[in-house]
From TrEMBL:
<dbReference type="InterPro" id="IPR007332">
    <property type="entry name" value="DUF411"/>
</dbReference>
<feature type="signal peptide">
    <location>
        <begin position="1"/>
        <end position="25"/>
    </location>
</feature>
<dbReference type="InterPro" id="IPR036249">
    <property type="entry name" value="Thioredoxin-like_sf"/>
</dbReference>
<protein>
    <submittedName>
        <fullName>DUF411 domain-containing protein</fullName>
    </submittedName>
</protein>
<keyword id="KW-0732">Signal</keyword>
<dbReference type="Pfam" id="PF04214">
    <property type="entry name" value="DUF411"/>
</dbReference>
């Protein structure tokens, strides 16, 4: 068996290529926001004095979403702008990837919405049911997550939670 000599130029090029690739991988791993695995961004609007809204935002963060909280005293205006009628309203309104999320919608339902991409305005949990994400009070109400459309605002059930 004959062993061929390795040319030093080839060895240097391979070493430099490996070093550059390692440096790039390290940079991407350590740079905030550089991950390709980052969750969807949720733009959330809430009254400045609402604590349960922040608890819901924490629920979403725990499920991998990036949540940007915007505090405003004009929640009525935010809801009107995004087609949330009073019968569908809750305390906070959020936007994610073209959908409206109203109230204490569980993160799992938002993920399902984003995967299935139905032709709806978004999801809502009207009111503030106990036991929904952000409303963990020790009591558990039954509640439904609803969808609605702009042209027909009759809600439809997306999922139900019974206790």
């Amino acid at each position: 068996m004959k062993i061929l000599p390795v040319k030093s130029k080839t060895t240097k090029a391979a070493a430099l290529s490996l070093l550059a690739g390692s440096a790039l991988a390290l940079y991407l791993a350590l740079t905030p926001g550089a991950s390709t695995q980052a969750g969807p961004v949720v733009e959330m609007y809430q009254d400045p004095n609402c604590g349960c809204c922040t608890d819901w935002a924490d629920h979403l963060r725990g499920a991998g979403f990036e949540v940007r909280q915007h505090r405003t005293r004009d929640m009525r205006g935010v809801k009107l702008e995004h087609g949330v009628i009073p019968e569908l309203a809750s305390c906070h309104t959020a936007l994610v990837d073209g959908y409206v999320i109203e109230g204490h919608v569980p993160a799992a339902d938002i993920k399902r919405l984003l995967e299935e991409r139905p032709d709806v305005v978004g999801l809502t949990v009207p009111g503030m049911p106990h036991g929904s994400p952000g409303m963990e009070t020790g009591r558990h109400d039954d509640y439904a997550v609803l969808t609605w459309r702009h042209e027909d605002r009759t809600p439809a059930i997306f999922s139900e939670y019974t206790h």
